[in-house]
Amino acid sequence: MEKEYLIKKWLDNSLTPEELEAFKALEDYEALTKLSNYTKGFKAPEYNEDEALKTVLHQIETKKQSKTNWLQPVLKIASILVLCFGAYYYTTTLDTTFTTDFSEKISVELPDHSKVDLNALSSITFNKSDWKNNRNVSLKGEAFFDVEKGSSFNVNTPNGIVTVLGTEFNVKQRDNFFEVTCYEGLVQVTYKNNKSKIKPGESFLVLNDLVINNQTVYSQPQWLTNTSAFKSLPLKEVIAELERQYNVKVETKNINTDLLFTGRFTHNNLDTALKSITQPLQLTYTKTNQTIILERE
Question: What confidence score (pLDDT) does residue 48 get?
């Protein structure tokens, strides 16, 4: 097997049993594996692992071609250090990402045992290795957070930043929709450089760049119990959530989708969900495969 291929697989910790035996047969195997353990305490600067790999291979090849005995151990040490720094950088900057598909919800435990419930068509990203220093999560979509007390915990979204120390809160970020609801503790929301603090039972909503402060009577997000609830929100937001929960395409005919809707729908039965939306607004619906058409009665 090619040495470059084996080294890359070793860096990725994905060698098969056969590849591991081939890697062990490399001339530099013993020195590489022995000294790689020393990198655990290193603090590496900005680093390009591809360039590091090229440097290692070049130096090993140069070492073989050299006839000067004193240069061989120097090159070996340099090669190992470059490779080990590359391995350190690779493992400490690797992010962990969880995503959900249509109709899917998952629960994720963070390194400090904080818990995240992820709604449909959502994703979170965080760095395990640097978690003790930076409790930062990047979110796209919607998630409910139950955060362990400790250092500052940040949820970064395309619309704004949510900062807490330890609490329960829900964040929903969808295109022109950004909502943060606090269920326990105190939550700080940064939106366009303006900071707002919300208490339990309060929510911070930005809809089409308009900031709205609301109240909630619920003790947790309704989507955790497979129900989507809405209070005076445009019908288009309700339709978008229905599409995410059921993996359908909704089309409207002669309907003002800015019409405000208050109500809820279940995630367990499409017909029941459609009736919950259409009946209060005096609409009708037809289904063709995965396409729903809404229109006036």
Answer: 58
Contacts 24+ apart (CB under 8 A), 41-49: 42/84, 42/85, 42/88, 44/85, 44/88, 44/89, 44/92, 47/85, 47/86, 47/89, 49/11, 49/86, 49/89, 49/90
Residue 167 pLDDT level (bands cut at 50, 70, 90): very high
Nearest CA to 2 out of 49, 73, 53 is that of: 53
Least confident of 39-53, 183-197, 230-244, 262-276: 39-53
The two tokens of residue 250 are: 């909704």
CB atoms within 10 A of CB 165: 16
Parallel/antiparallel/unpaired status of strands 177-184 and 153-156:
unpaired
Contact 273, 266 (CB under 8 A): yes
Instruction: Give the start-end residues of each E strand in 47-101.
Output: 96-99
Q: How far is CA 145 from CA 179, 197, 200, in A?
A: 14, 17, 14
- Residue 87: the pLDDT is 47
**96-215: CATH, from 1.20.1250.20, 3.30.360.10, 2.60.120.1440, 2.30.30.40:** 2.60.120.1440
The boundaries of every CATH 2.60.120.1440 domain in the chain are: 96-215
Q: Give me the pLDDT at residue 25, please.
A: 74
Q: Are strands 291-296 and 249-253 parallel, antiparallel or unpaired?
A: parallel
pLDDT of 170: 98
- CA proximity to 146, closest of 195, 95, 105, 110: 110
Can you tell me the distance from the alpha carbon of 265 to that of 277, in angstroms, rounded to the nearest whole number? 7
Going by C-alpha positions, the residue among 49, 39, 47 that lies closest to residue 7 is: 49
Distance, CA of 89 to CA of 92 (rounded, Å): 5
Q: What is the pTM (predicted TM-score) of this model?
A: 0.69
Q: Is the pLDDT of residue 132 over 90?
A: no
pLDDT at 20: 73
Query: Which class in CATH covers the domain with range 226-296?
Result: alpha beta
